[in-house]
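I hope you will forgive my troubling you with a question about protein structure. I should value your view on which stretches of the chain appear to form regular backbone elements. Here, with my thanks, is the record as I have it:
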Amino acid sequence: MYLTVKETAEYLSLPEAYIEALILQRKIRAHHDGEQYLIYKDQFNTHLEQMERYKKMMDEYNSQPLPEDIDVKDED
């Protein structure tokens, strides 16, 4: 499925200008049909899956209790 720049911006929750900049920098693959850029939606699946895994990992890390404070004597 192909999306326009506006639809891609909504899908990724990013500004349209940023999406256009990524296209011009060739960081997002897109086809220009003469009027607008068309972006293949499935190219973002891997990125979104990695972001979900990272969020889950950070949630697990943040939910762990802090270790008890070690009473270290400062020797001068």
